[in-house]
Specification:
Strand order of the largest sheet: 1-2-3
Shape: globular
Strand content: 5-15%
Mean pLDDT: 85
Number of helices: 4
Largest sheet: 3 strands, antiparallel
Distance between the termini: 22 Å
Length: about 100
């Protein structure tokens, strides 16, 4: 997992999280919608909390089958609830992420 410090101005146009669509903050993690272990090359920017939530909700095998279908991900009940909850949080908001519920 690659974390970078965003040198762009938070909220700058075009700087949005792939999952929640909120403006990115000072920390950005790059996510492979199709995991690298499954041949994925494309990366998308995420808030660290969004990235951790994705990986706490889905296995790499599930992410490979979903193949980056953002609408499908957002319709998952766990992700949908997370998106509702995080929507009003500031870009650099952080909270512990619950482990995988399996």
């Amino acid at each position: 997992m690659e974390t970078i410090v965003n040198d762009a101005i938070p909220g700058e146009e075009g700087q949005a999280c792939w999952l929640c669509s909120r403006a990115l903050g000072t920390r950005i993690e790059w996510h492979h919608p199709v995991p690298k272990s499954r041949g994925g090359r494309e990366t998308v920017p995420l808030h660290p909390i969004c990235h951790r939530t994705l990986h706490a909700t889905f296995t790499n095998a599930e992410l490979a089958r979903i193949a980056g279908n953002l609408e499908f991900l957002r319709q998952n009940p766990g992700i949908a609830g997370f998106l509702d909850w995080v929507a009003a949080k500031p870009p650099d908001f952080h909270a512990p992420t619950a482990g995988r519920k399996r």
